[in-house]
Structure prediction request, 950 residues.
Amino acid sequence: MTTPLDRRTFLKLAGAAAPAVAAYSCADRDEAARLASANAPVDRASVTWDKAPCRFCGTGCGVMVGVEQGRVVAVRGDEASPVNKGLLCVKGYHLPGLLYGEDRLLYPQKRNADGSFSRISWDEALDLIATKFKETLDQHGPDAVGMYGSGQWTVFDGYAALKWVKGGLKSNNLEPNARLCMASAVSGFITQFQSDEPMGCYQDLDVGDDFVLWGNNMAEMHPVLFSRILETRRVKPGSRIVDIATRRTPTSDYADLFVLFKPGTDLALANGILHLLVAEGRIHTPFIDENVVFRRGIEDVKQIGYGCFGDQAERYTFEDQPRPSSLDELRAFLAHYTPAHVSEVTGVPVEQIRALANIYGDLARGTVSLWCMGVNQHVRGTWMNNLITDLHLITGKICRPGANPLSLTGQPSACGTAREVGTSNNRLPADMVVTNPEHRAEAERIWKLPAGTIPAVPGYHAVDMFRALKRGDLKALWIQTTNPWVTLPNRSRFDRTPNDGRFVVVSDIYPTPTTAIADLILPAAGWVEREGVFGNTERRTQQWNKMVEPPGEAREDAWAIIQVAKRMGMGHLFPWPDDNWHEPMFEEYREFGVGHGKDLASYAQLKQTRGMLWPVVNGKETPYRYTAGYDPYVKKKTGAHFYKAVGYGEKAAFWLRPYHPPAEAPDEAYPYWLTTGRVLEHWHSGSMTRRIKQLHQAVPEAYVEVNRADAETMGIKKGDRVKVVSRRGSVELKVEIDGRGRPPRGSLFVPFFDEAYLINLVTLDAMDNISKQPDYKKCAVRLERV
Amino acid sequence: MALAIAALSLGVGCSESPPAAVARTTGERATTRAYDGAPPPIPHDATLGTCTTCHTDEGAAIAGVGVAPASPHGAAAAAGSMQRCRQCHAPVQTGAVFVASTFTGVAQGPWKGSRATPGAPPTIPHTLQLRENCLACHSGPAARAELRTTHPERVRCRQCHVPE
Prediction:
């Protein structure tokens, strides 16, 4: 309303006076006055507000946190945050509740011989960890100890863990749960750009023309970013949303084009699009000549396997063997991905394959590809990441505002901690790896450690880590900020009985199925109960202050690691005063990236801003990486420069990647596909969101989505209980038909947030050959009536 | 639980006379929201259809059911970013909790604006974020009695009332 009473407003007001409403809308003045005076006004001056990133997904929405008398009492969407511009999703609006479940873990607890737990002091707990890890190191060496952390770790937690495990324990058995979540995106970026993380940012969502969602229910999983796309579509006529999916979701309801494909055949679909682009010459030859090299690797399905059958069932160590390729070889490689053949493999009509080729092939339009778990939790997830980026490389739709591949992330610091700090079995900060002697030397220099401290052989990847724990090769394991006893695939194979000779420490804020199998439980401080830094999907590093005291004796995870290190004689790793270590630790960590295109903002600058997109050079952030005019490392006047890809002559690699079938497919005995995933209101294993009343009440329990025709054939209806059975396990669930997700015939979907219905007893531990990320999206099951 | 839903669902039992709507109080409102400013849940079957058919800028009377409150998001509701109501508003499937909570949200008010002089228009004591449509809460059948304006016909509220 810009004028006091314009015509539109007048009409609205007149509308309000329409008979049906008018009967109520004449405010009773006396009544209003009486009630207003009867209600004493509440003093809200005592609420203080400070900024923080949201604790849930990788979007990294800014929230203003309201604190009153030492407790978080409210949040608001932070209007100053460029991520969400003031809007949140239902999880974000209910953030405060995550701290206040009645069963918060309040003090350390040690498992007794009879299986019960007893409260112990922090001193006893820290001494116990130090003793157990030291004993294990002495008796069995560094391969027998490990740490399993999280994309929800703050940068401080992750950096402390990295330095302690790799620089103190001299082990590479450090893994984040991001292995289950983002690893295929990492290996996608590394294989193509020799540097992790995207070139684009969320501005792409405001200025793009076409948004192609690959296996991504963005309306539920990244709602705030999806709402940005919806706004773009409203203000930009002709902009489109394409939903490429294996079932209908709330995202499909907003799509201009819905493409249903058979599970796992996205590889064939992408190759089918490439086939048309190349055959019809709809490629950007000058861009390719200037910026792209071609590569291919091992393509024999027998040689690669799936990481879960035969010899690979205990340990999976496939290594790709890259070799140069060419555009001519690509033509031959794509020859058989004709529309007719691809349509047969994928189930996608030929005209839709052509429509997709037209979207990518219209070089004048900005195309943004978006993907998350559908592509990453995939037995060929790295390949699928490669193929999506290939579509952008071959059309030159990359490193341009509104034209980029943008990998979405699921955890608040999957990027900032797991990927940038490098808390995994082969990594060091800032894209460095333990297998490179120069990288190890650089880390040892910054850490002031003797040469040869960091071992050169990668440790266990996540799934192998738990396989090793089961075998007994791994004997001491510290798990922080994650819930693997809900989230590991084929979970029953990792079952453990406490007091089995292993020592498992679990740090969390609530009891979970994982704390239930622990030998020692530590109470953690959560979210704004401690100072922290997260890094989101778009390379934005965000800092927040401690705002409230943690309950009981809960302490932050990084602090616990530092105290154990000190007890093991590794205090030199953390030479900072107990009352001021965050900023000096961050500044040491920052040293890894400065000058290498991974420059983080200074801690002082992070405190002042709503996050900064790295590389941050001379205090200026970089919205578009590798992009002339935006990235200070690019000296060209126009175009792109992939300066991190030294091994490819500073060009990006286009990978030829074929279609391989999934590890397991429906057959007569197990005739249905099973896909697992999330729902909007719950986040991951549900240990936080289920304790928030409004979120639990919205989706109180897991269910199985069944296609209506399949249900009719089986004689089951909505609300019936059925058993979902695979070769590995079973779970009984309530049937949902035509709910928010609608799978096609022959497919089922089950969300994994509910520990009472462990769908991961049913899933398969098949994994990607390169990233070692498990495929939670495809296995074969049958339905039984109960 | 059924009671809570009924209380939420303005319509039930109050289709004929205004008092049921008018009598909605701060206390009742607090039972549905986590804290002042939190999005309320959807108190009815969330699969009824498009939300904005009934929850318009003015609200709507649904024959035989009751009143669908106006959307307080005002002009912002037209923005694409506000198209998906379910992004923030969740259904209620159970009255039970998984684990009880000690969370207490910031009080639901009513807040009182300050006046420069006696008789001067009071300031707006809350943020305008997602509350652009003043009349959604300060007038009409769904408005809490204690928040009702005495002069809804003046339309341009911010001519006289400014945020604190």
Observations:
- The first strand of chain A starts at residue 48 and ends at 53.
